[in-house]
Amino acid sequence: MDFKSEFFKYFLHWKWFVLSLILCLGIAFYFIVTITPTYQTSALLFIDKKQDEKTKIISNSSNSSEETSKEDNLEEEIRLVTSNDFLMKVVKVMNLNISYFEMVYKVQSKFVNEVPFIVRPTIDNDILPQITYTIKINKQGFTLTDPNTEKSFVVNGYKGTQLVDGLPFRILLSPKAMKNPSDYFDSEYLVSLEPNDVAQKKLKKALIVVSEEDSKGTIEINHIGSSPDRSRKILNEIIVLLDENIVMNKQKLYVNTVSYLNQRIKSFTKEKDSIESVKEKFLQNNDILVMDNYIVEKTADRSQKNENFNLNERQISLTNYAINDIRNSNGLKPLGTDYKLEATSINQMLLNYNTKLMESELILQRAQKNNPTYIALMTQLKSQRLEILNTLESYLNSLKQTNRANKTEQNVANSKAKSIPTNDKILGNINSNLNTKEETYTALLQKREEAILNGAILESNLKTLNSPVTNYTPIFPQPKSFLLGAFLLGLLLPFGIIYLNLQLDSKVHNEDDIHKVNANIPFLGFIPKANPNDKLDNTANSRSLIAEASRTLVSNIFYLLPGKNENIGKVILFTSSIQGEGKSFCAFHNAITLSNQNKKVLLIGADLRNPQQHEYFNLNKNEIGLVNYLFDNSIDWKSSLKKDTNFSSNLDILIAGEIPPNPTQLLTNSNFETLIEEAKSLYDFIILDTAPVQMVSDTLNFSHLADVTVYVSKFNYTDKRSLVQLNKFIKKEQLKNVGILINEVNLKSSYGYSYGINYGYEYQEKKVKKSWFKKA
User: Which residue segments constitute the domains of the chain, with CATH numbers given?
Assistant: First the structure.
């Protein structure tokens, strides 16, 4: 990127930059001088959140970490200060819906807190109209004016006894001003009224409440306003109300805490009594006095019942054995006495039986079996034996009945023993619930005592670290920032407009514009824009801009010429994209410049549709010219030539002549080519002023005759898209050996042209300029 070129694109418009800077800086300075400055007043508060932990109801370990993390969280206090209800209290306490100003200039007012009068609304502050009055004090009383309607109100007297229709307030002098009202006759004041809700919104907008991260537990309250004293009073009132709200909230917390604790204690008392009743019924229903004794008792009872059952079973077995043994005996042998029966009578009967049996054996030793004594004794033994068996049967039946009773008792004892774990678990749960309730009950009683103790010593945990202080450096408007911003705006505004204009501009301005579209086409130079009276000043000794530019153009055209055959004239064709780009003008000056260089030049007006060359030589356009020859080649075209007598004797002109109805057919016949071939042998250069190539095809039909094609574009007129079409002509070989020329360049409003032209003039002036000592 060529920064120098880009810079001068904008530097050409330096007047607009200067004008924009003057305008922006002037407006900024006027704004700074006339606007009422606003200041920031700040107060720093500290809220000890640790004191609030004393009033917490629950402080379990599960949430202790969470409470610790929220210890320094001041969002609740910040929300309170910025709440609508809180700010509405400030508005009502300080009457912020009424504002007083002292008129210093017509465009500036100074906010004041002390004015020599008092305004007392006669309607509710919530429905006050949003209106402003200017107030003047005079000998009769007060004169009030509504600036919007220019309606005036007159209040007679200074005591405020008069109620004026249309005024929503009474006005009276303050006690201080009542002493000497004339001191205030020359001053003009302004009072502004608004509803409370509007004042509350303004106050909320002017407040900035933040919590400092570095200093935990601190809140910074800022108020932005035009009156520092009023701002300090507002912050002081906010601090007072915040302190009252903190104490009030603590009182509410205390009352709610004690009420809640009483409610919970009452509820837990009922729950504890209910659990104790359940425990009592459970013990009664299960015949439990003490659970440990109950366990020992039921365990021992189960062991006893099992042992009794086992003993009874053993006796049954022994009894059955004894019965079988006695039945199987023949009655001649003694019965067994070791059956281990627990029936004493049976054991005795067995002993008696064995004793008699021994007696019968003794008798049998002394007598025969038929001995009456022996027979009687044997009959007696048989009876005893039957009696023993009957007794054993009875005993056995008794044992079986006892066995069934023992079995039932055993089952009951086992069942009660098995229910011991269940009863123990149930009783344990009951005792656990009862213990929990008793512990909670005890904790609630302790919390209630703590809450009552804290309620007796309630105090605010708010401390003012820094009282409201005003920074008297205005935060709006800030002169340096405003002036710097105005300076930047003054530069950026015209820069943006010029940049946008350059981006949207599709016209040709300089060589760079041409090279961006046609990089391979040579640039031949430019023709500066000149006044109509000066455009013909192109004589051999002329130093005009037109003459210098034309000479440069001729030099550049020489570089495009295919060869230097002195015997054959060179054909230079001038054309353009559309009409009005000045190709005829450029062809005219190029012909003059070449003729002034002792070259024999023929200038032909080949634009048969819109001929222009006759105007430059003050000729009648209907005179015989090219058209006549093309129509009838018997006419000698040399006889139609005009000599130039004003610029050079080496220049001949062949004008177009009358405009024909069929220019294309005339230019495509062989007559025109014959004319060119004849002219080459007579002239050094043949200059063709042709028709625009993008409008008609006339020029393209004979463009192959040209040695050099000069494609004329007009400064700030030719569209760049037309140069794209030129590339197509070149690729199709419809135009050959093309060079581009920019016409009517405005040297005063463009960059990149003046250096080459002014160099010659500066050099010439330096040659003729004499020093002071030579003049002397």
Answer: 3-35+477-504 (no CATH), 298-418 (no CATH), 511-757 (3.40.50.300)
